[in-house]
Structure formats: C-alpha cells, structure tokens
Design a protein that fits this description.
Elements: H1 13-41, E1 62-75, E2 91-99, E3 106-109, H2 112-117, E4 125-130, E5 142-147, H3 150-195, H4 200-220, H5 224-250, H6 259-267, H7 273-284, H8 286-306, H9 312-341, H10 343-351, H11 356-360, H12 363-397
Antiparallel strand pairs: 1-2, 1-4, 2-3, 4-5
Helix pairs in contact: 1-4, 1-5, 3-4, 4-5, 4-7, 5-7, 5-8, 5-12, 7-12, 8-9, 8-12, 9-12
C-alpha cells in the first residue's frame, strides 16, 4: 500500500492563508476580549475572609487522624445512665483508635448513620475531633468526623494518568496538563472573583473562554482543525449562557437549595448564590461541548481525505450523520451522569406523597433538570455549526488530514 495517496488534495497556499486569516479574524477579538476581561475581573483578594477551620474547632479542640484497630458493639458512652423503653441499655458501635501521632489507644463512638452506610473496619484511617482538652470528665472526648481518603484517591488519580498517557501518549499528556491548567485558573481566578461579588455571568464567560482557548490549542496544536472546533465550542458556550440566563430567571432558581449553599451565603456575603448557579451551568458543559466539537471537526477532515472530490453538501451531510450519532450518545451521557449524581434527591422526591410534576419542580430537582437541558441544547446546536465551519474551511483550503497531523517519522507536518 506504499505510495498510496488517493486521499490527498493539493493545497493552494493563498487559499490556505486566506482561510486561516478568516479564522483568526473571528477568534482573535474573542480571545483578546477574554484576556482583557480576566485582567479587569481579576480578584484583588481584599474582600475574601478565609475560614481558619472547616470544622469550627476552638480552643482546646483539635482535629487529628488515627487508625482503627478494633470495633465492638458496647454500651454507648454518650448515653450512660439512660435506658430504652423496656429497661434495655442502649448499645453502639465502638471503634478503638490508635492516634497517628502516637499515644494510647482510645474508644470512639461511631455515629449510627456511618454504621448503617459503611461501618468502620480495622485498618481504616479516620479523622476525629479531640475534645479531651476541653473537659476532662467528658464521656465522649473523641468525635468521629470522616474517613481519610488520601490513599484511594491518589491511587485512582495515578491510575487515570497512566491509562491516559499509555493510550493517548503525548496528546494525552498535553490534555492532562491542559486540565491541570484549567483547574488552576478556576481556583485562582473564577472562585475568588465570584466571592468578591464580580458578575457571575461575566466571570463564567471569560473564564470558560480562556480555558477553552488554552486547553484546545495546547492539547491539539495550532491548526485550522483546532480553530474550527474552538469556534464551534464558543458558539455552544454562547448559546448555553443565553439560555442559562433566561432559564435561571424564568424558573426563579435561587441556588440556596443545599446546606453548602446556605453556609456560603453566611461566610461569603458578597457571593450571589443564583449567580453561582449560573456560572456553574456554563462550566458544567465545557468538557462535553469540547468533546463533540473536536470530534466533528476531525470527522470532516477525515471525510475530506477519504472522498476528496465530495461537494460541500455531501461533506456536511456525511458529517451530520456522525454528529447525530454523537448527539444521541452524548445526550444519554449527560442525563445519566446527572441522574446518578442526583440519586438521593430523586429517591427522596419519590417518597413524598405529591404529584410527579410538583416533585420535579422543587428547587433541587429544577436545578438538576435545567442543568441537563441547558447544557444539552448548547451541545446539540454546536454540532451543526461546527460541521458547517469545518466544511467551509476544508473546501476553502483544499486540505487533507495529512496536512493537519504531524508525521510519525518526526518530520513536522504542514499545518493549516
């Protein structure tokens, strides 16, 4: 099969430059606006009051870690002297803990909800509050807080990195670095800006745009294919933002539907909970939106190489057949991902004796439903737009895939 080049199309350099120029004329103002927006919205840090301790410990109270050595069912230390109806003494699960810093083994009463969901076992690493410095005669000087999950999370993270690098190789490494960069930008820019009371819509749009510019070009390189996908992504992001603004207002979403939101409202008074929800709607769809636009852009270039003499209409039609399959699978992915995350809410809603419509229109359920629908609409509309842009660029430049991908022998391929 050596010397087989049926898929190549001769490239007119002037047409190629013209197409790239048009792409940059469209993208450059957006990129510059996003960069300037991030500079203007960049948080000063003066309005943020950091919390010293998420568990609210005070003088004489400290957070510590330890390892479970043994677990027994014994009389509850917190209910000494109390009896159940019928004269039976209350019993609890008691775990014996060895402090991580050393010291004597002590008994710790395990909360009933923890026993029911995931009982403590020997070898478990836990966090606990040490109240022994507050009251020496306290019957429960140690309080269970949570499990220490550092090791399993680290194993999963390392496994994920290894799998991505082995399968996707250098491109996977660049994608992971882009992911880390995006998360750092969210932490350093978006979160503090929101806490300072900056416009959530502007923060969400500016932050999402900067992340997409950096992540796409870093992971996929500077090429017409990447620029096409970026244009489609930005279109989908704009559609998502517009619908999210309308939907959050029309549905009167407050964002104050969880204990975390209520806590935020107390400790970060400048933060708008409804605005935080709006910003979250934009960020939530970025990954899937980027996925479909890159896929559609790549599909058009592949189709152009396989059938270089296809008309623009034929390329668009073929590309949309792929796009429709992607829409079908992605809609399921988004819906089931959110349904899985919202299972406790779904179960609780089903237990109430009220019509289904009333259950679905509660604050928490409405937020999840709108998150699914807003993200899905932006994603679906981005597919035909990305496909059309890709067809126009391919036909304008006469490029094949070989002009977009680097050569395997180490030569730098000509990029469009």
């Amino acid at each position: 099969m050596g010397g087989h080049h049926h898929g190549q199309i001769l490239i007119d350099p002037s047409r190629r430059r013209r197409a790239n120029l048009i792409l940059w004329i469209l993208l450059a103002p957006i990129g510059i606006a996003a960069l300037l927006g991030s500079i203007l919205l960049w948080p000063t840090g003066t309005e943020i009051q950091p919390l010293n301790d998420p568990y609210g410990t005070g003088p004489g109270v400290s957070m510590a870690t330890g390892t479970v050595t043994e677990t027994r069912t014994e009389a509850c230390p917190s209910s000494m002297g109390l009896e159940e109806v019928g004269g039976k003494e209350l019993s609890c699960e008691i775990s014996y803990i060895t402090p991580a810093t050393g010291g004597a083994v002590f008994a710790l009463e395990v909360p009933p909800e923890t026993v029911k969901s995931r009982p403590l076992k020997p070898g478990d690493h836990i966090k606990y509050l040490d109240l022994s410095g507050v009251s020496s005669d306290s019957s429960t000087p140690y309080v269970f807080v949570d499990f220490v999950r550092t090791i399993p999370l680290s194993i999963l993270a390392i496994g994920y990195v290894i799998v991505v690098c082995l399968v996707a190789r250098w491109r996977g490494i660049r994608a992971l670095l882009g992911l880390v960069g995006g998360l750092v930008f969210i932490i350093l820019f978006m979160l503090p800006a929101l806490m300072e009371g900056k416009s959530p819509l502007l923060v969400g749009l500016v932050g999402s745009t900067v992340i997409m510019f950096a992540a796409l070009y870093f992971a996929h390189g500077f090429s017409a294919r990447t620029s096409t996908a970026l244009l489609g992504t930005l279109f989908g992001l704009g559609v998502t933002a517009g619908i999210a603004v309308w939907a959050s207002d029309a549905a009167a979403l407050t964002g104050a539907t969880s204990d975390t939101s209520i806590t935020l409202n107390t400790v970060a008074p400048n933060l708008s909970l409804s605005g935080l929800l709006l910003c979250g709607l934009l960020i939530a769809g970025l990954g899937v939106l980027n996925d479909v636009t890159i896929t559609q852009s790549s599909a058009i270039w592949e189709l152009a190489e396989i059938a270089p003499n296809s008309t623009a209409h034929q390329l668009f039609t073929s590309g949309m057949r792929i796009g429709r399959d992607h829409i079908a699978s992605t809609v399921y992915t988004i819906a089931f991902a959110y349904a899985g995350a919202a299972l406790p809410i779904l179960i609780l809603s089903s237990l109430y004796d009220q019509p289904l419509v009333d259950s679905l229109s509660t604050g928490e359920m409405a937020e999840e439903i709108i998150r699914i629908l807003v993200g899905s609409i932006g994603l679906v509309l981005a597919i035909p737009v990305t496909t059309a842009i890709a067809v126009a660029v391919v036909k304008a430049t006469g490029t094949s895939v070989e002009s977009e991908e680097p050569r395997s022998r180490g030569r730098r391929a000509m990029r469009v």
